[in-house]
Design a protein that fits this description.
Elements (H helix, E strand, L loop, with lengths): L2 H35 L2 E7 L14 E7 L23 E3 L14 E3 L8 E8 H5 L8 E8 L8 E14 L3 E4 L5 E11 L1 H13 L2 E6 L12 E3 H25 L5
Antiparallel strand pairs: 1-2, 3-4, 5-9, 6-7, 6-10, 7-9, 7-11, 8-9
Length: 259
């Protein structure tokens, strides 16, 4: 056998060994997958729609077996008892859940508790001017309302509440406006003291529009005046115009004259 033939035989042996190794790897992988698919874990599947903050009873879901390969115990729930809940509280849906959803840990939470004197109140806020996708549960916001003039009064923009935490934001829904059109609104829930809840209820009922202003995580700083009315606004415009005019006259005096 000449050297070329020996090299050919050697390459054939190496190729055969490689093929056997690949076959063994594939076989081992397939075998492990079959073993995993042959084992099942239990998950909870909702058998009805559940609104945000509604309790999850034992009759709200069915148990379903899924292959272990598709089950992550850090994500899915096998038993509601796995969720740590303070004594006396029950688990509720953290957002609107639809029938057929597989329960995950972020979908449930202990029922929010109100401290002595607090009130939980929800208002409908325009989805575009009030939320705009940036305000979320846990955000801190200021709430502003604009009021049209009544009884020969002035139109005003008022800060109803300063730095209040958003307890929850519901699903976008449609609401018919006074002009006959349809606007997108979002229910936003707050936890307030009785006086603030009363102010917010009044503002929702009688204001032309409510707006939420997102407060920086670094703090709200000086919130400024709580109200600006049409007379105040006109004075501010006049002051700004006077300042601009004075600035223009100063510039003219500083300009060199030719000649």
């Amino acid at each position: 056998m000449n050297p070329r033939q020996r090299r050919g035989v050697l390459l054939m042996v190496v190729a055969a060994i490689g093929a056997v190794a690949v076959f063994a790897s594939v076989f081992t992988y397939i075998n492990s997958q079959q073993e995993q698919l042959g084992q099942f874990a239990t998950v909870l599947e909702l058998n009805e729609d559940v609104e945000a903050y509604q309790p999850l009873g034992r009759d709200s879901f069915n148990t379903v077996d899924v292959p272990v390969a598709y089950f992550d115990p850090e994500v899915f729930i096998s038993d509601l008892n796995e969720i740590e809940t303070p004594e006396g509280q029950e688990l509720v849906a953290s957002t609107h859940l639809e029938k057929g959803a597989i329960l995950q840990r972020g979908m449930v939470q202990p029922q929010p508790t109100l401290t002595a004197g607090e009130r939980e109140i929800a208002i409908m806020v325009n989805a575009e001017t009030g939320v705009a996708g940036k305000v979320r549960r846990g955000s801190v916001v200021d709430i502003y309302g604009t009021f049209q003039p009544r009884d020969h009064g002035e139109a005003c923009a008022t800060r109803i509440i300063t730095e209040v935490e958003v307890l929850d934001i519901g699903e976008l829904r449609s609401q018919e406006s006074e002009g006959g059109g349809v606007a997108g609104v979002v229910p936003v829930t707050f936890r307030l003291d009785p006086q603030a809840a009363l102010q917010l209820a009044y503002a929702e009922e009688f204001s032309t529009k409510l707006r939420l202003a997102l407060v920086s995580a670094a703090g709200g700083g000086d919130a400024g005046e709580p109200q600006v009315c049409s007379g105040d606004f006109d004075d501010m415009i006049d002051e700004a115009s006077d300042s601009q005019a004075q600035g223009g006259q100063t510039d003219e005096r500083r300009m060199p004259h030719g000649g």
